[in-house]
Structures are given as structure tokens and as C-alpha cells.
Design goal:
The chain is 80% helix and 1% strand. The chain has a two-stranded antiparallel sheet with strand order 1-2.
Length: 331
């Protein structure tokens, strides 16, 4: 008797969420056009080199293939062995949801849900996917801290960039603390002691999830390959933005370091689901503050997103075709 109203309420909630995101996206686009002028934006977009954009798409695809390999290593470490084709499918489906549900968390949740549907452990799948995401954020923060230190030491920064640099430094410290929890038994003992004394709901479940995520400090057969692959993957992802900028004639040796600051900063601060246009506009604004031509910088941010969306359509094809196999058949 209650199925109809419940389903109607859920459908209405999704419709309202989609409408709100659409309104925000349109508002952001209208503001960008009003602020910069349609003629200048169009002129910047028209001069984009298709060859550079194709190179950016190839780079993004290569980063995703390496990302599949990294995820498989972490899954095997958690006791889940996936065939290469299925790992490829699930990873790209996750990328598709990252782009079309507006947030990395959504894509990660989809990957874990597929693992659970396939009779693999949802908890172990969550742990491996969390470690996969954490490794990427750790690599991004490392790039950003090095680039920020170089920038501060050689050129100095303005007030807004100081906030960005400070935020990146704080993120690096946070990730270092998480890494300590993951690999240090002494820190783990302190965390579990604290968890047992706090009024935390579902404490046994939370403790079980944390247990699944833990690594050993001497597990170099996991830490080393994952660390190296993460650095390469994130360097390629930053390279996508560099190539999109090159398509507009914006790149020089004198401004290359900004990509290793701005791109990681936005990647780590905008993991939550956000309407299309917010991250792109923020990226364009930060690059403009760094001295890039405002119209071209704004177009660059949108081009990088379009490249990611185009490549993630591989995941859309696999999702729509229903060729991802689980233990209960195709999904």
C-alpha cells in the first residue's frame, strides 16, 4: 500500500535534485557569459586546436587504464580478484557517473555497488576503492605542495593564491595523518582506543570498515606499485589540463607550475556532487588570478571537463549495453 507514495516521493526528490542542478548550471553559464562576454569566449573557443584536444583525450584514457590496474592491485590485496575486462568496465562506469552525477563520490559508490551485486564483499570493495581514491589524493597533494613551495620560494603569491597554497598544505597534513592510521599499528591502537570511548553509532561496523582499510608498513609489494601508479595517473590527469591550455596557446615554461597547484586544489576540494559549471568556472577564475587570459582560462576549464566526459562515454556504452557481469547475471 505504501509502495506507490514512497516511489513517487523518491522520484520527486530526484526530479527536484536534477532541476536544482540544472538551474545552478544555467546560472553559472549565464554569469560567465555576462562577465566575460560571449564574443570573447567564442573567439577563445574557436581557436582551440583539435589535435591538442585529441592528445588530451588520449592522455585521459591512458590515465584511466592505469587507474584500472591500480584498482585491481588494491582489490587483490583485499581478496577480490576481478577479470581485466570487468575491472575495466566497472572503472569506466564509475568515471561516467563521476562526470554525469557531478562528483567522484558518486562514481566510487557505483563501483562498490557493482562489486556487492557481483557477490564480492561490499566492505572489502569499499576499502579497496577508498584506498584507490586516497592514493590519488595523496599524489595530487604531493604535486601541489612541491609546486607551491617552488612558487612561494621563487615568485611569491597574491592573497587568493596564498589561501589556495594554505589549503593544499592543510590537505597534505591531513593525508599524512590518514596514512599514519593506515600503516602504523601504534596510531591504529590509539584511534581504536578513542573510537571505543566515543558515543559513535554502529561502532562495530565502523571498526570493521576501518580494519579492512589497514595496510602494513612493510607491504612494499602494495605500497610501492600503488604509489608509483598514482603519481603517474595524477600527472597524466594534470597533463590533460595542460594540453587543453596548449590547445588555446596558454602554456609556457613560466606558468606550467600553476597547473600542479590549481588542478589538484580543485580536484581535492570538489569531490562532492556539484552541478556542471561550478568547478570549471572556479578553475578559470583561479588561472585568471594567476595571470592567464580570463576568457581563454574559462574556456580551458570547460574543455578539460568535456574531454573527461567524452572519454567517460566508454563507461556509458558499457553501462547501457548491460555487459557488466555480476554473480547474478548482467546488470
Amino acid at each position: 500500500m505504501t509502495g506507490g507514495p514512497v516511489r513517487t516521493g523518491a522520484w520527486l526528490k530526484r526530479l527536484l535534485s536534477f532541476t536544482a542542478k540544472l538551474v545552478v548550471t544555467v546560472a553559472v553559464l549565464v554569469y560567465v557569459v555576462w562577465k566575460l562576454g560571449w564574443e570573447d569566449i567564442a573567439a577563445a573557443a574557436v581557436r582551440a586546436s583539435p589535435l591538442w584536444l585529441l592528445a588530451a583525450a588520449a592522455l585521459f584514457f591512458a590515465s584511466c587504464v592505469l587507474g584500472v590496474a591500480q584498482w585491481q592491485i588494491l582489490l587483490r590485496n583485499r581478496g577480490i580478484t576481478l577479470p581485466a575486462q570487468r575491472a575495466f568496465d566497472l572503472y569506466f562506469i564509475g568515471m561516467f557517473f563521476n562526470n554525469f552525477v557531478f562528483g567522484m563520490v558518486a562514481g566510487d559508490a557505483v563501483r562498490v555497488a557493482y562489486l556487492k551485486l557481483g557477490n564480492e564483499s561490499g566492505r572489502r570493495g569499499f576499502a579497496a576503492t577508498f584506498l584507490d581514491r586516497f592514493a590519488g589524493c595523496w599524489a595530487l597533494s604531493a604535486f601541489a605542495v612541491v609546486a607551491s613551495a617552488w612558487l612561494v620560494g621563487t615568485k611569491g603569491v597574491g592573497a587568493v593564491m596564498w589561501y589556495t597554497v594554505a589549503g593544499l598544505a592543510a590537505a597534505f597534513v591531513l593525508f599524512a595523518a590518514v596514512m599514519a592510521v593506515l600503516v602504523s599499528k601504534r596510531v591504529q591502537a590509539w584511534v581504536f582506543w578513542l573510537l571505543d570511548r566515543l558515543p559513535v553509532p554502529q561502532r562495530p561496523r565502523i571498526r570493521g570498515i576501518i580494519d579492512e582499510m589497514l595496510l602494513e608498513a612493510h607491504d612494499w609489494h602494495i605500497l610501492l606499485p600503488v604509489g608509483v601508479i598514482s603519481m603517474v595517473v595524477q600527472a597524466l590527469r594534470i597533463g590533460v589540463h595542460v594540453l587543453c591550455a596548449a590547445a588555446l596557446g596558454l602554456v609556457s615554461l613560466g606558468n606550467l607550475h600553476y597547473f600542479f597547484i590549481v588542478v589538484p586544489f580543485l580536484a581535492m576540494t570538489m569531490v562532492i556532487p556539484l552541478p556542471f559549471g561550478i568547478r570549471e568556472a572556479a578553475e578559470g577564475s583561479l588561472f585568471a588570478m594567476a595571470g592567464f587570459q580570463p576568457e581563454a582560462a574559462m574556456v580551458m576549464g570547460f574543455l578539460a571537463s568535456v574531454v573527461g566526459i567524452a572519454v567517460s562515454l566508454v563507461g556509458a556504452v558499457r553501462f547501457v549495453a548491460g555487459r557488466v557481469r555480476t554473480g547474478r547475471g548482467s546488470v
